[in-house]
């Protein structure tokens, strides 16, 4: 029985870590992988989604609807920022890094001034189940299902819809897409808005599990970048397998040695991958496919 409980605990921690990595990195993978923009304001889009989710849930909306409101709010802000700021910085990576870093500082300090250092959150739904002397949150299982559903939804969007075909063509061959009559500016705006909306969705999904503070995006940003760097530019060939591998590393080290060693394991993994596979897992998979 004790062995079974230990295996279940590690499996549960793997699912929890996998969900966190996938959900938190999806928006970053879309913006960086498809557009080549290193978005240092990713954590602030997550914070926006969490704050809007908490506010609308306290106003009386059902939690799923509140999460959707958080994602839509972040997507709308992302599209506005793309039109006013980011559109002028494509193919200028250093400038885009500085701009998104500045946006992150403005957002964090703006929320701190307007809403204060903390905000009342929402409770974690669904309760928990006990097995032996351990308790497991059922909402974490929902997050794992949401991560799998998110990957499936993005795959269908980018590979089985007209928007997905046009978006991939615009990112890969913008001049050819323009010659064929595609409004590439509109596609860039929608793609950036999608990435921001996915970040807001991450914030909304994790809002019931976290304390609402202006700097909460920092909780996500490191592991998001680690997953994208290990996975490479392709969210399906790279980010998803990278999330699974990193989740195994984190869950195993956390179960045996504690949370600190789990975080150290992630950082060591990204150092090794950068040294051996600078293009990430997706670059290796694409070379094998050729």
Description:
The radius of gyration is 19 Å and the shape is globular. Helix 5 packs across helix 6 (162-172) and helix 10 runs antiparallel to helix 11. A hairpin with a 2-residue loop joins strand 1 (128-131) and strand 2. It has helices spanning 2-35, 42-58, 63-84, 93-115, 138-159, 162-172, 174-179, 184-206, 218-231, 235-257, 259-276, 280-289, and strands at residues 128-131, 134-137. It has one domain (14-123, 135-231). It starts with a helix and ends with a helix. It has a two-stranded antiparallel ribbon with strand order 1-2. By secondary structure, the chain is mainly α. The model has no long low-confidence stretch (mean pLDDT 85). It contains twelve helices and two strands, in the order H-H-H-H-E-E-H-H-H-H-H-H-H-H. It is found in: Cell membrane. Keywords: Amino-acid transport, Cell membrane, Membrane, Transmembrane, Transmembrane helix, Transport.
Q: How many structural domains are formed by the residues? A: 1
What's the total number of strands?
Answer: 2
Largest β sheet strand count, sense and barrel closure: 2 strands, antiparallel
Order of helices and strands: HHHHEEHHHHHHHH
The class by helix and strand makeup works out as: mainly alpha
Beta-strand content estimate: under 5%
Order of strands across the widest beta sheet? 1-2
Mean pLDDT: 85
The general outline is globular
Count of discrete alpha- or pi-helical segments spanning 4 or more residues? 12
Helix-residue proportion: over 70%
Oligomeric composition of the shown chains: single chain
Tell me the span between the first and last alpha carbons: 48 Å
- What is the alpha-carbon Rg in Å? 19 Å
Low-confidence stretches: none
GO cellular component, one term: plasma membrane
Subcellular location: Cell membrane
Membrane topology: Multi-pass membrane protein
Protein name: Branched-chain amino acid ABC transporter permease
């Amino acid at each position: 029985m004790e062995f079974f409980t230990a295996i279940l605990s590690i499996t549960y921690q793997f699912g929890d870590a996998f969900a966190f990595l996938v959900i938190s990195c999806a928006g970053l993978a879309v913006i960086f992988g498809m557009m080549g923009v290193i978005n240092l304001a990713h954590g602030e889009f997550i914070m926006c989604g969490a704050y809007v989710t908490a506010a609308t849930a306290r106003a009386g909306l059902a939690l799923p609807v509140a999460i959707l409101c958080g994602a839509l709010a972040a997507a709308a802000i992302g599209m506005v920022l793309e039109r006013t700021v980011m559109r002028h910085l494509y193919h200028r990576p250093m400038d885009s890094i500085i701009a998104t870093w500045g946006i992150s500082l403005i957002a964090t300090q703006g929320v701190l001034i307007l809403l204060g250092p903390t905000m009342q959150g929402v409770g974690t739904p669904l309760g928990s189940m006990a097995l032996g002397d351990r308790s497991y949150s059922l909402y974490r299982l929902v997050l794992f299902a949401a991560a799998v559903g998110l990957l499936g939804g993005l795959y269908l969007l980018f590979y089985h819809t007209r928007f997905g075909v046009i978006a991939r063509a615009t990112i890969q061959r913008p001049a050819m897409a323009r010659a064929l009559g595609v409004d590439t500016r509109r596609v860039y705006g929608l793609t950036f808005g999608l990435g921001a909306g996915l970040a807001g969705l991450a914030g909304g999904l994790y809002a019931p599990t976290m304390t609402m503070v202006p700097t909460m995006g920092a909780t996500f940003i490191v592991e998001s970048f680690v997953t994208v760097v290990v996975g490479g530019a392709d969210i399906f060939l790279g980010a998803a397998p990278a999330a699974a591998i990193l989740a195994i590393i984190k869950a195993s080290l956390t179960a045996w040695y504690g949370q600190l060693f789990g975080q150290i394991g992630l950082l060591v993994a990204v150092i090794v991958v950068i040294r051996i596979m600078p293009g990430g897992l997706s670059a290796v998979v694409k070379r094998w496919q050729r």
